[in-house]
Amino acid sequence: MSKIRTGLAIALLASALVGVPASAQPQDDVFIKGAPIAGSSNGLAIDADGNLAVANVWGGTITVIDPAGGEILEMYGREASLGLPDDIAFGPDGSLYFTQEGPGGGVGRISPDGSVDIIAALPFSTPVAVTADGDLVVAQCFAPENGLYIIDPQGVGEPRLVLGGIPGCAFNGFDFGPDGLLYAPNPPAGTISTVDLDTGEVAVVLDGLAFPAAVEFDSLGRMHYADQATGAVYRLDPATGSTEVLAQLAVGLDNLVFGDEDALYVSSAVDGSITEVRPDGSTRVVSPGGMTAPAGVGVMGDTLLVAEPQAIRGYDRLTGEPAGIIRSVFGVSDVGNPITIAAGDDQVITTSWLDNTVRAVDWPSGQTTVHDDFALPVNALRFGDDLIVAELGTTSIVRAAGDDPTQRETLATLVVPGGLAATDDDLYASDWATGIVWQLVADGETLAEPKMVGQGLSFPEGLAAAPDGTLLVIETGKQDLVRLDPTTGETQVVAAGLAIDPPPPEGFPMAPTFWFNGVAVADDGTVYAGGRGANVIYRFAAAS
Fold first, then answer.
1. pLDDT > 70: what percent of the chain?
2. What pLDDT sits at residue 26?
3. CA-CA distances (angstroms) from residue 80 to 98, 237, 363, 454?
4. CB neighbours (10 Å) of residue 252?
5. At the topology level of CATH, where does 13-20+36-287 sit?
6. Is the pLDDT of residue 487 over 90?
7. How far apart are the first and last CA of the chain?
8. Are 351 and 380 in contact (CB under 8 A)?
9. Which of 166, 239, 312, 536 pairs as cysteine with 146 (C-beta 3.0–4.6 A)?
10. What pLDDT digit, counting tens, does each position of 456-480 carry?
C-alpha cells in the first residue's frame, strides 16, 4: 500500500453509486441488515484529507469513509467499470489506482477529474504499491503464470516483468520498507520476503507464519503484518528483530494502512469491518462487521443460514440475532467460497463456481466434504440420499447417487441451469436463460420428459418449495419475488423492487447467475430472500 496522500476525486460519484433507489426497496420487510461496508473490506489507502478508501472485491466497489466515525462519504461502484477491485493505492498526482481480481482483471485508475480507465490488461491482479518515482508495482495471484510487474502510471507501454513464475499466490498486500526494498507476504508459504526491484532478487526475512496477508511500515520504520488465519496484528522491531502481537482481532484479516499519528487501520475480508489499532495496541472499531455479500439462503429449524463468498452465517430466524458463523479462512475452515446453500437437518450443501466445488458442510462444526468432480456447479441440494447439481459446464441438471459424482444421471439439459427446489417427492429446476421452471421428479418418480410448470419469468434464480405446494421464485430481471403455482402456471408478485445483486461486471467471465439471489421457505411458510444490492435479508409472512 502506498503512503502517498492526495485528494480523492469526487466527480465520479453521481454516476458511480450502486444499488436500487430506496423508494423501490421493500424497506418494511428488511429483516437483517449487514455491515455498513458491503462486499468485504480488502485493500486500504488514505487520502490527503485523512479519509480512508476501502476496496470491496466481492462488491465491485470502492468505499470512502471518515475514519473518525466510520461515516460513508463516497462510493465508487460497478457502473464505473471497477470490476472486482482488490487493492488500491494513491499516486502523486491524486489518481487512485486499483487492481482487479479474476481472469478479466487489470489495473485501473480513477483520475483527479473523475474519469476511469484501465491502464494495463493484467489478469488476476492483486496487490499494488507506488514506487518513489510514482510507478506502480503490481503482482498477480492465481494466474496461470504469476508475475511481478512495474507499470507506468499513465498506462504507457507494456507492463515490465520484474519476476516471473511466482507460484500460487506468493505475493499479497505488500509495502516498501525504509531500505527501499519491497516487503511481500507469501500467505500459503507462511513467509515474508524482500524483493529488489532492480535485480529481482528475493530473500525471506520471516518464516513459520500461519497465513500472512499484508505488510505495512509505520513512521518509525517498524514492520507490521496481519495474519489472516490467526487474526493477529504483529509488529517487528527492526533494531532487535523481535516480533510482538500488537493486537488480537478476529480471523479473516486482509489489509493494513497507516493514518495520522501511526494509527493502523485493519480490514477484514470476512465481515467487512475496519478496526483502528493504536501504537500502544489499543483498538477501536471504525466500521462494524457483519454480513457483507448475502447470496444463497436456507432454513435449518429455527436457524436461517446465509452463504456469502467468505462465510456461512447463521441467524435466529425469529429474531434475526446472529447464531453462529463458519469463516472461510485458509487453515481455519474448508468451506471455500460458498455462493448457494441448501439446508438439511444438520448439514448444508453449498456450491461455488469460483472454486468449482460442491460441499457438504456440517453445521455448526464446519466439518466439510468436498466434491470437485462437477462441471462449474451453480446450485445443488440434497434430494433423498442423492445430490442434485445444476452444472453450468454441461448446462445440465444431474443426479449423483449418494455422494459419488461418478454415479450420475442427467435429469434435464437446459440453456442456463439455475434455481433448484424440492419437496420429499418432487424436484424442480429453473432455466435462467429461458425463464422456464421445470418439474423433473413427481411423486418420487423421475419424469421421462421434464414438465414445464412455469414460464415467462425474467432470469429466475432463487427457487424454493413452500408448504402449500407453491414455489417461490426470484426474478432477477424484474427484481421481484413471485409465487408460482406449479399446477396452473399462474404467478403472483409477493414483493417488488428487491435490492438484488447487480449483474456481473462487464468483461468478467463469470456465471450468469453471478453471486446468486437465493430464497428459502420455513416450515411455517415464512419466506426469506437475499437482497445483496442493499446487503440485507428480507422476510415475508406466510401466504394466508
1. 93
2. 67
3. 12, 41, 39, 36
4. 27
5. Methylamine Dehydrogenase; Chain H (2.130.10)
6. yes
7. 55
8. yes
9. 166
10. 999 999 999 999 999 999 999 999 9
In terms of Cα–Cα distance, which of 144, 179, 181 is closest to 162?
181
C-alpha cell at 267: 480490514
Tens of pLDDT along 349-400? Answer: 999 998 999 999 999 999 999 999 999 999 999 999 999 999 999 999 999 9
SS3 256: strand
In the structure grid, which three cell numbers stand for residue 286, read together?
471504525
Which residues does residue 446 pair with via DSSP β-bridges, in sequence order?
Answer: 441
DSSP 466: -
Helix intervals (H) in 147-211: none
The domain ranges of the chain are 13-20+36-287, 314-540
- Note the residue count of the chain: 544
Q: Can you tell me which residue has the cell 462487521?
A: 289
Measuring CA to CA, which residue among 60, 34, 35, 52 is closest to residue 501?
60
The whole-angstrom separation of Cα 282 and Cα 60 is 32
Q: Name the residue type at position 311.
A: A
Q: Do residues 305 and 528 make contact, with C-beta atoms less than 8 angstroms apart?
A: no
Dihedral Cα 61, 66, 68, 71, nearest 10 deg: -80
Between CA 359 and CA 83 the distance in angstroms is 27
Dihedral (Cα; 278, 281, 286, 290), 10-degree rounding: 160
3-state class of 321 per DSSP?
A: coil
User: Mind listing the pLDDT tens digit for each residue in 418-443?
Assistant: 999 999 999 999 999 999 999 999 99
Q: Please give the class, per CATH, of domain 314-540.
A: mainly beta
R_g of the chain, CA atoms, integer Å: 24
**Nearest by Cα to 1 from 68, 53, 51:** 53
3-state SS assignment for residue 14: helix
Contact yes or no for 138/107 (Cβ under 8 A): yes
Q: What is the dihedral of CA 18, 24, 28, 33, to 10 degrees?
A: -10
**97-155 per-position pLDDT tens digit:** 999 988 888 999 999 888 899 999 999 999 999 999 999 999 998 888 889 999 999 99
pTM for this entry: 0.91
CB atoms within 10 A of CB 112: 16
How far from the centroid of its chain's Cα atoms is residue 516's Cα? 12
Distance CA 316, CA 318 (A): 5
H or E element in which residue 511 lies: none
Residue showing cell 482488490: 86
User: Is the Cβ–Cβ distance between 348 and 326 less than 8 Å?
Assistant: no
Q: What angle do CA 415, 420, 423 make, to 5 degrees?
A: 140
Looking up cell 484501465 gives: 118
CA 81 vs. chain centroid, Å, equals 17
Given this model, what pLDDT does residue 507 score?
A: 65
Of 35, 21, 41, 65, the C-alpha closest to 537 is: 35
The residue among 217, 138, 146 whose CA lies nearest residue 188 is 146
CB atoms within 10 A of CB 196: 15
